[in-house]
Amino acid sequence: MLRADDRHPAEREIDHGPWPRAPSRAGSKPFEFRGTEFVPVPVPPPLRALPDLGGGILAKPRDGAAVRVTTLERTLVDVLDAPRHGGGWEEIWRSLESVEFFDLDAVIDYAFKLESAVTVAKVGFYLEQHLEELMVDDHHLDRLRERAPRRPMYLERGKREPGKLLSRWNLVVPERILNRGWSEVT
């Protein structure tokens, strides 16, 4: 997705991968503009009826036109909710880790709007992995844990990849993601 905060240096980096994506209503098609392919990402069903599509979307001027972009907070939740839009777990992790600050209350509030206990658990898992870097407090994790799945669920829908059950999130996370297996390759 395109992110709103153009001042963030990681944003320019992120935009070079499969990330240039923008929230859209049904029927939008990918297009190319000045050498960059833009891929519309459908708004999640629980948000479609909301007048602001769930919030976290801004109109930013780009080459003389207004382009709808998502905030860093919404992008974090959206790529964890639908990782197929983020270029794979390694790219998601590396890209999110390049962001120095998130408004954690905005992250949590948006995650709740998606009405998905699994997404809430993914956000909790990610934040738990980055406690110090993102200044995550116990109250942030407690809010998320209250809405985590009641039974174990896999990290990705439709992929029953073996992994470790994180009981505090009721989330089965593949070892390669839990241990950031890609870090050894760099």
Question: Low-confidence parts lasting 5 or more residues at pLDDT below 50?
Answer: 1-20
Number of helices: 7
Q: How much of the polypeptide forms β-strand, as a percent range?
A: 15-25%
Largest sheet: 3 strands, mixed
Q: Can you give the helix content as a percent range? A: 25-40%
Shape, principal axes of CA atoms: globular
The succession of helices and strands, N to C, reads HEEEEEHHHHHEEEH
Calculate the terminal CA-CA distance, rounded to whole Å: 25 Å
Broad structural category: alpha/beta
Radius of gyration: 16 Å
Count of distinct strands: 8
User: What strand line-up does the widest sheet have?
Assistant: 1-3-2
Mean pLDDT: 83
Summarize the structure.
This protein has 186 residues and is an alpha/beta fold. The chain is built from 7 helices and 8 strands; from the N terminus they run H-E-E-E-E-E-H-H-H-H-H-E-E-E-H.
